Amino acid sequence: MKHAKIYAIDLRTKIPFYLLNKQGYNQTFIAKSMGRNKSTISRELSRNTGKRGYRHKQANRLADERHQKKNKAIKLTDSVKNYISEKLKEYWSPEQIMGRLELDKKIKISTETAYRFVLQDKAIGGALYKYLRHQHKKYRKRYGKNDYRGRIPNRIDIDERPSIVDARTRIGDWEVDLVIGKGHKGGFATLAECKSRLYLALPIANKTAQNANDAINKLLTPLKHWVKTLTFDNGREFSWHEKLAENLDCNTYFAKPYHSWERGLNENHNGLLRQFFPKRMALDNVSEKEAFRATDLMNNRPRKCLGYKTHLRSLPR
Asked: How many other β-carbons are positioned within 10 Å of the β-carbon of residue 92?
């Protein structure tokens, strides 16, 4: 719309020049001289000529008045607002809500419109903003540093991992990590499957190799036929990776120290999990039921990268 308005003002500035200084020239000549269609000139004159003839400032004012008065489609109806509110309370992001709204109801609304609705709700005392991921909190910058952690026996670097994993064309490639509670009290073993984006989490009592190994085995043994590779960070809690590889019949790899982007999917999901279990919260009293409820809500969110389908719909039957 912005470009159209600039063009219209430019056109109206030139028309008086041709009308006043090119007396006797018809609309066909004016249109050809300006590189415009004859009908464009004809419509401009018929719509915006006043009692004293055509004047470009008056023409611009008349066009703006018509634009203000014309009927406009109101897409943010009460039913759409209710839909946004309902899905926010299921911990969907505004982008996910708008994508699914277009998919299910054929209504296309910008994500920014959804955010404005949430902020308007907040301004009148509403609580919808509390369901947003970060609630407008600032991100903390992180910088790389040296790796002072112990060596992991028989560690295989991510550079040796098959390239098919990066392509995300098959089910069975998992990224693994731990999420730790405040004061190192409790935590979760977390896994994210690269193609389907399926996310799993299980509470652990503390950050030990035994607990990490047991939790990962418990989560993945029922899905053993969907496990081909596991990719870890370099924490000592994953030093039992060879036992996992033997039990799950898979290969294990390790990202480079402090290269969290090499396990970006899992890192992203861990951040989303913090919406349910904030960093200021100790995790030693979190039950498996609470963890499963959180991951179930996450796995049932529509994902843009999956065409706004859910993780579970993208899995093979």
From this structure: 21
232 forms bridges with which residues in the sheet? 254
Structure tokens at 200: 């799993």
Going along the chain, which residue ranges are E strands? 173-180, 187-193, 199-204, 229-232, 251-254
Give the H/E segment covering residue 84.
Answer: helix 78-88
C-beta contacts of 311-315 below 8 A and 24+ residues apart: 311/196, 311/197, 311/198, 311/199, 312/196, 312/198, 314/195, 314/196, 314/197, 315/171, 315/196, 315/198
- Is the distance from CB of 200 to CB of 191 less than 8 angstroms? yes
Residues contacting residue 235 through CB under 8 Å, at least 6 positions apart = 149, 178, 207
Tokens 């910058």 sit on residue:
141
DSSP 185-219: -BEEEEEEETTT--EEEEEESSS-HHHHHHHHHHH
Give the whole-number percent of the chain exceeding pLDDT 90.
Answer: 47
Task: Name the token pair of 152.
Answer: 């992991």
SS3 content of the chain, % helix, strand, coil (to 5): 50, 10, 35
**Distance (Å) of CA 87 to CA 48, 94, 279:** 47, 9, 24
Q: What is the pLDDT of residues 112-123, one digit of tens each?
A: 888 989 988 888
- Does this model's pTM top 0.85? My answer is no
pLDDT at 17: 44
